[in-house]
Amino acid sequence: MTTNLPKPGDAINGGQALVRALELEGVEVVFGLPGGATLPIYDPILESSMRHILVRHEQGAGHMAQGYAHATGRPGVALVTSGPGATNIVTPLCDAYIDSIPMVCITGQVPYGAIGTDAFQECDTTGITMAVTKHNFLVTEAADLPRIVHEAFHIATTGRPGPVLIDVPKDIVDENNPRSAMQWYEATDADMELPGYNPSGEGDRTAIMAAAELITAAVRPVLYVGGGILKARAAESLRELAELTGIPVVTTLMARGAFPDSHELCLGMPGMHGNYTAVTAMQNADLLVSLGARFDDRVTGKLDGFAPGAKVVHVDIDQAELGKVRAVDVGIRGDCRLVIDSLIECIGELGGADAQSDRGAWRSQLSGWQEKYPLYYEQSEPGNLLKPQYVIEQLRDLNPADTIVASGVGQHQMYASNFWKFDHPYTWINSGGLGTMGFSIPAAIGAQVGMPDRRVWAVDGDGCFQMTAQELVTAAVERIPVKVALLNNGYLGMVRQWQELFYDERFSGVELGADVPNYVQWAEAMGCVGIRVDSPEEVGPAIAKANEINDRPVVVEFRTDPGENVFPMVPAGRTNSDVVVHPSQRGE
Question: Per-residue pLDDT averaged across 461-469, rounded?
Answer without folding.
Answer: 97
